[in-house]
Amino acid sequence: MMEAIDLLLNTSLWAAVLRIATPLIFGVLGALLCERSGVLNLGIEGIMTMGAMVGWLTVYMGGDLWTGLLVAALSGGMMGLLHAMLTVPLGLSQHVSGLGITLFASSLSYYLYRLIVVVGDLPPTIEPFRPLDIPILSDIPGLGPILFSQTVPTYLALLSVVVMAYVLARTPLGLAIRMTGENPHAVEAQGLNPLRIRIGAVVAGSALMAVGGAFLTTAAFNSFFPEMVQGRGWICIALVVFASWRPGKALLGALLFAFFDAYQLRLQTVVEGVPYQLFLMAPYFLSIGALVLVARRAQVPEALMVPYRRGER
Amino acid sequence: MRLERRAHAPLHLIVIAPLAAIVAALFLAGGLIAAAGVNPFGAYAEMLRGALGSRLSVTEMLTRATPLILTGLAAAVAFRARLWNIGGEGQFFVGALITAWIGHSLSVPGPLGIPILMLAGMAAGALLLAVPAYLRLRFSVDEVVTTLLLNFIVILFVGMMIEGPLRDPLAFGWPSSVPVDGDFRLPDLVPRTRLHIGFLIALAAAGAVWLILARTVFGAETRAAGLNATAASFAGISLPRTLMGVAMLSGALAGLAGSVEVLGVTAGVTTTMSPGFGYAGIVVAMLAALHPAGVVAAAVFVATVFVGADAMSRATGVPSFIADVVVALCLLTMVVALMFTTYRVRR
């Protein structure tokens, strides 16, 4: 019992929380942006897998790490465009199209990986992002190693939360996106094109999801292997509901989730006689529990999953 | 250019849609095969030979189609009522696990035990889907996310059981659960092949589902709930009761798939026994336009791709992941093809 509490005082736990939260922050922001414009994007799991593979492959083939993230974002944007084309102008089922994108993007990633990379006994590795010690700040006892000794993409994720919150709440673009998710007819009446706004939001959101996936292979680990996203995309979809479609709360949700994930990983080492699978299940149960708590009160965007067709009500 | 809703979906289009979708998907995947430096036509010929070229390969393909028919029916039943059951994979595994568990120690004659074990598998699958269905009705929790997350929980649970209480002490290498008693193994349909009478059970299930959907009040209620939930409520249909009924039926079918796979093929449960039967069931259901008879045909097609791709991969070196790409592309092309059955394009 004392050991379980000791773990909480360990700075490596808290540093791990931010690291584990990073892909979730990118993913949840991406999903949130899509849904705020009125499109559910269940392609997220596959798009994160694609980002993980493409980001890693770019670096493996000789690109630098930032090029890797950029190419991953582009690949995610492409998948987003496909989802947007099927669900926005054609108005097809967002559930089915999203699942199709997930199946397609992940199987395509595995196929291309097998085709291009020669895998021996161990998957090949790259030189990943190294933690960047911010001068002076990282020397603060306790807080320094937790907050100011992370990889650059983690800082980028935190910055993205601020940017997303500002753009959605304080800019005309954000207003247009939110309005498209609530009442696309009103957007049309304002002389804006709701279809274009939705396509743009889904493409940009999917690019963010892919960057989250790429973080896994270029910063958290240094190689790619099938099934590595492990439901993180689905957890992001749950976190969006938990966050009531707000970027600030989404950050909180991602951090909370990452804390439990980091803690259960460390608990496994000190608690004996309990199957490790029970610890691994905990984060998934936590997500379902969080949904049950908030789903009733959640303020769902009014036009979420409602296709917009000109002249049809 | 704009889309205009058709008054009726013409029958010939409903038949053509999946064929067009499959051709389009094979065409697109052909580009990826060409990228591997292999002639796509040659590769597809190799695929057909691998799945349909001999008596043995046909039985192997039908063995693979058996669980796909059942998971496809599970998805079709649920999607018709707009219950988004994406948890077929988890329901498959609880059905398989409970079957192996009870089937290892049950001491009744075989002909009595087999139906008991199948019912147990169905009950396990139904209960697993009842949870997300209840959460949706009671707390408005979206069932897509809960059924998906439950898949991960179930796989971990299966891992825990087969490394713990249900571990087979005689299994080498990868952990496996204890096997079901030999008396409960399903008889072979074709001697000296893996094809078992589970295939006939799957066909019978398709027939039963068709009867339920087309000829019973419950079937009419599920259709109404799926087409327009508000209108259905006004017509006096209890939406919660209908959705729970759909969830039980859908979960039971996916659980039966797991049960039949254990009784007919694997005997014990491993975490790798399903190459995504639950997820592929969704594609099967969509290719079938959610029709039970179509599900059988679509499952045979998907099984042909999976079994054929393994043979094609051995012959040409194209990664066998191409099978998953083809199946995923079929889902995307099918939703587009289905659109043309319900809408027409007007200038």
Characteristic key phrases:
A: 313 residues, mainly alpha, 13 helices, 70% helix, 0% strand, globular, B: 347 residues, ABC transporter involved in vitamin B12 uptake, BtuC, two-stranded antiparallel sheet, 2 strands
Give a description of the structure:
The complex is a heterodimer of chains A (313) and B (347). Chain A is mainly α and 313 residues long. Chain A has a single domain (2-121, 145-294), classed as Orthogonal Bundle (ABC transporter involved in vitamin B12 uptake, BtuC), CATH 1.10.3470. Chain A has helices at 2-8, 11-36, 44-60, 65-87, 94-116, 143-147, 152-170, 172-182, 184-189, 194-220, 232-242, 247-270, 276-294. The model of chain A has no long low-confidence stretch (mean pLDDT 91). Chain B has a single domain (2-346), classed as ABC transporter involved in vitamin B12 uptake, BtuC (Orthogonal Bundle), CATH 1.10.3470. Chain B has 347 residues and is an all-alpha fold. Chain B has a two-stranded antiparallel sheet. The radius of gyration of chain B is 21 Å and the shape is globular. Chain B is built from 13 helices and two strands, in the order βαααααααααααααβ. The interface between A and B is large, with 45 and 44 residues.
